Amino acid sequence: MGIFSPGFRGRRRAGGEQLPPGQYLTEDFPVLSAGPTPRVPLEQWEFVVTTETGQAVRWSWPDLLALPSETPTVDIHCVTKWSKLGTAWRGVSLDVLMAGVETAADFALVHSYGGYTTNLPLEDLLDGQAWIAYEYDGAELAPVHGGPARLLVPHLYFWKSAKWVRGIEMLLEDEPGFWESAGYHDYGDPWREQRYQGD
Amino acid sequence: MLDVPGWPGHLAGQHVDVRLTAADGYSTQRSYSLAAPTNGDRLELTVQKLADGEVSPYLADVLSAGDPVEIRGPVGGWFVWRSTDTEPVLLVGGGSGIVPLMAIVRTRRAAGIRTPVRLIYSVRSPADVYYGDELRRPSRADDGVDVTFVYTRATPAQWPEPPRRIAIADLEAGGWPPDFEPSCFVCGPTGFVEVVADMLVALGHDPRRIKTERFGPTGG
C-alpha cells in the first residue's frame, strides 16, 4: 500500500453495502469460462456423489427436481473482481443430497461436464452453505451460466461454484482442481482476498 | 509501456491486475492482457478507452511517464501459449480480444520459430483494428502467420462483401481442419466467444483444445 495514482478520482458507489477487498459492483452477469459451453441433454444428465470408499449415490434430472428445493438470495464474488449482490437462485441444498451419505473424508473434488474440476473442504459444502442450483432469477439456468445445473457456494470465489456440475467426489486428501492447478488459491475466501496461490 | 523492476517474465496470453488508488484511499482494479512477450522489466499493455469507463480513460489519458502504477502478475495459467508448443495454432479474436492473441504472435516472432498460425480477427471497421501495421504488412519473421479480417460494421474500400458477423465459413476458410488438431485460442466479448467456440465444436474441433477468454467492458 502507499502507492497513489496521481490524478485518479474513481467512481464511488452510492450504496453502502460492503464488498470484499478489491471487488467492484456489477449490474450485469459476466460469463467467464475456460472453454466452450458444454451441452447436456436432460435425459442423460445425472449428479453423482462418490465417497472415498467408492460408494456412489446418483440422481437423474427428475430425481433432482423432485427433491425439496430452496430459493437462496446471495451475493457472489468473482476472482476477476466483479461482485453481484442479491442474486436469486433455486436449488437443492447439499445438506439434503449428503443426508444419506456416510463419509469420513474432509475434502471434496467437484466434477463438471466438459472436464472442469474444483476442490474445497467438505465442511464448506454443508450447513446451508451450498446448493445444486437449476434456476437463476426465476428462470431455467442458462447454459452459459452453468445450466442445466451448477454448484452454488457463494461464500467462496465464484470459480468454486462449478458450472455444469455432474458430481462430487469425497477425498481423504485435498486435490487441486482446474484453476487451483493453474495458479489460483486452494481455498478462495473473498474476504481475505485469497485469489492466487500464496495469497 | 510500464517498467516493473524485477519482473519475473510471463507467457503469451497472461495478464496483469492494475490497481489505481485515489488520494482518499479509494481504489479499484482491472485486468489487462500483456500485449508483448517478456522483455526484461518492460511490460506493454494495450488499453481500449471506454467513454464511460472508470479505469481505461485514466490509463489512456491521465497516466504520464514517471507516474507510479500498482501491478500484480503475471496472472493466468490456462489461456497461455508456449513457444515450445508444436501444434498449429488458431487464434480467433473479437475487438480488444486481439491483445493476448497478439502477444502469442509476437512471442512466436521473438523466438524465431515457425509454428503455423492462423489468426481470424473480427472488428467493427478498419479504424478499430489494433496492430494494423504489423498485421497488414507482416515482416519476414511473421512468415507462417496467416491473417484474415472480418468486418462487422464497415469494410475497407473495395472489400468484396458487405459488413457481417463472423460465420462458420470464416473459421473453415481461415482456420485449420480439425484433423490437424490445432490449439485454438478464442478471445473477445462473451457473445462473440460463445458463438465462435460453438462453431469450432460444430466443425469438429475437440472442445478440450479450445481455450477461451471472455472480456470487455465491466460496466463500472
How would you sum up this structure, described in words?
The complex is a heterodimer of chains A (199) and B (220). Chain A is mostly beta strands and 199 residues long. In chain A, 5% of the residues lie in helices and 29% in strands. In chain A, the strands form two sheets. In chain A, strands 1, 4, 5, 8, 9 and 10 form a six-stranded mixed beta sheet that branches. Chain B has two domains: 74 residues, Beta Barrel (Elongation Factor Tu (Ef-tu), domain 3); 126 residues, Nucleotide-binding domain of ferredoxin-NADP reductase (FNR) module (Rossmann fold, 3-Layer(aba) Sandwich), CATH 3.40.50. Chain B is globular and about 55 Å long. Chain B starts with a strand and ends in a 6-residue tail after the last strand. The mean pLDDT of chain B is 92. The interface between A and B is large, with 37 and 41 residues.
> Helix count of chain B?
5
CATH class of the largest domain in chain B: Alpha Beta
CATH class placement of chain A: Alpha Beta
Outline the biggest β-sheet of chain A. 6 strands, mixed
**Ranges of chain B with pLDDT <50 over ≥5 residues?**
none
Structural class of chain B: alpha/beta
What is the CA-CA span between the terminal residues of chain A?
15 Å
Low-confidence runs of at least 5 consecutive residues of chain A: none
Number of helices of chain A: 2
Termini gap of chain B? 24 Å
